[in-house]
């Protein structure tokens, strides 16, 4: 491994990677997912604010879905969703103590991105059809599903909130791993848009 | 056909008899029936608050009076030892109830407080129903969050 998988490639440049809308999407998502989560667990009994915060997350996800097809290349799903070969290849260099200089979400990180987006979409769906039998916090679409489904949805929504917590903790842990193990700051690019990447 | 009906009728007799004798089954059926009665009256009030059901003062007041009456019942006595989910099938009552019966009682007192005066509070217009439903619903939620199995 004297010349590791990332060593013999091209020059490193600073480029505009994340477009402004994607960055706004990310930080608004953080704000409203955290708000929804905290309101769900600790908020007032009348959960109106929780519902509205959840609807904002739903709107953000719809934007992200569209942006994944028509946005600039680094935002597109086709740009970062890769097969098992690419993921395995990326993982070989994963623990090297050097930055990845990857031009976008790397093939492994893409799995985490998709998992978070899918878990949030599922969370909104179960929320919309939940009926916790309290006559004040009934999901607006609960009457369109069977009564067994709308009570089960409450349980799924609770499990989903734990899953989201786990995924976010992993997400943040990995960002810290890049920062302190790989000496690569991924957060700054998510703020300024500019990232050091290796041309290939 | 007649044979099948007779057989079916005969088969239900011993089952019904067993159900009658089983205090655990009885307590579960009774409290679930209790909650269904709460739910039916809440449904009337919530429907009027949202405008799905047309407001009528007598109907609203009756539904609220029913909830007041139910809240006066000694519901915790229907939570017999040995009737928790995990111990028997067909119940969503979490074992935590028996671990902290005092808090469970306090949650039920919460419903009693929310229900106090409801039958007069809902008179005088549809606009008065919403706040009552909000208070009552908060008491349902507070107890379900801690003591009712989800899903
Ligand atoms: C509720 C919490 C969070 C959620 C739901 C979340 C979700 C996401 C999602 C969906 C992406 C992919 C962006 C896209 O292309 O759409 C992403 C990327 C990213 N997030 Fe988060 N995030 C959260 C919290 C955070 C926090 C607290 C930080 C900072 C420490 C952070 C830093 C980043 C970075 C740096 C990226 C880009 C990763 C890369 O370079 O591939 N996130 N996040
Ligand atoms: C990002 C989106 C969302 C997140 C992270 C989230 C999170 C949560 C959490 C943590 C709880 C408490 C669960 C528990 O303690 O067991 C909760 C409860 C609830 N949420 Fe959400 N939620 C989201 C979206 C929604 C939406 C869009 C709706 C409905 C339109 C909704 C409806 C509900 C309801 C009805 C409850 C109460 C369930 C119960 O009584 O246990 N949620 N949510």
- Globular, elongated, flat, extended or rod-shaped: what is the shape of chain A? elongated
Radius of gyration of chain B, rounded?
19 Å
Give the strand order, joined by hyphens, for the main sheet of chain A.
1-2
Number of domains of chain B: 1
**What's the N-to-C terminus distance of chain B?**
39 Å
Cα gyration radius of chain A (Å): 20 Å
Q: Order of SSEs of chain A, N→C?
A: EHHHHHHHE
DSSP strand tally of chain B? 0
Tell me the name of the CATH homologous superfamily of chain B.
Answer: Cytochrome c/b562
What is the CATH architecture assignment of chain A? Up-down Bundle
Determine the fraction of residues in helical runs of chain B and give it as a percent range: over 70%
CATH class of chain A: Mainly Alpha
Q: Can you tell me the number of structural domains of chain A?
A: 1
Distance between the termini of chain A: 20 Å
The largest β sheet of chain B comes out as:
none
Keywords (chain B): Electron transport, Heme, Iron, Metal-binding, Signal, Transport
Signal peptide (chain B): 1-19
Protein name (chain B): Cytochrome C
Binding site for heme c (chain B): 140, 143-144
């Amino acid at each position: 491994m004297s010349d590791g998988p990332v060593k013999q490639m091209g020059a490193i440049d600073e480029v505009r990677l994340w477009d402004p809308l994607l960055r706004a999407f990310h930080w608004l998502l953080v704000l409203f997912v955290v708000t929804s989560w905290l309101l769900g667990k600790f908020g007032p009994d009348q959960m109106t604010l929780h519902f509205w915060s959840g609807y904002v997350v739903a709107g953000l996800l719809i934007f992200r879905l569209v942006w994944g097809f028509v946005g600039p290349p680094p935002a597109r799903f086709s740009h970062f969703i890769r097969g098992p070969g690419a993921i395995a290849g990326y993982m070989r260099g994963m623990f090297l103590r050097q930055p990845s200089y990857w031009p976008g979400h790397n093939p492994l990180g893409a799995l985490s991105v998709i998992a978070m987006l899918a878990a949030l979409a599922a969370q909104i769906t179960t929320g919309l059809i939940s009926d916790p039998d309290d006559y004040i916090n009934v999901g607006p679409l609960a009457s369109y599903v069977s009564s067994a489904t709308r009570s089960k949805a409450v349980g799924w929504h609770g499990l989903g909130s734990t899953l989201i917590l786990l995924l976010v903790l992993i997400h943040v842990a990995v960002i810290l791993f890049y920062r302190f193990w790989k000496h690569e700051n991924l957060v700054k690019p998510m703020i300024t848009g500019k990232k050091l990447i290796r041309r290939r | 056909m007649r044979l099948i009906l007779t057989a079916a009728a005969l088969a239900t007799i011993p089952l019904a008899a067993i159900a009658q004798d089983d205090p655990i089954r009885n307590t579960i059926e009774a409290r679930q029936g209790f909650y269904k009665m709460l739910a039916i009256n809440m449904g009337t009030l919530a429907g009027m608050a949202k405008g799905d059901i047309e407001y009528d003062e007598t109907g609203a007041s009756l539904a609220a009076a029913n909830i007041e009456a139910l809240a006066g019942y000694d519901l915790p006595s229907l939570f017999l030892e040995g009737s928790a989910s995990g111990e028997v099938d067909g119940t969503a009552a979490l074992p935590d109830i028996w671990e902290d019966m005092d808090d469970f009682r306090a949650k039920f007192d919460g419903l009693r407080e929310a229900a106090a005066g409801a039958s007069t509070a809902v008179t005088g217009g549809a606009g008065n129903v919403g706040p009552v439903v909000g208070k009552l619903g908060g008491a349902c939620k507070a107890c379900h969050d801690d003591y009712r199995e989800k899903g």
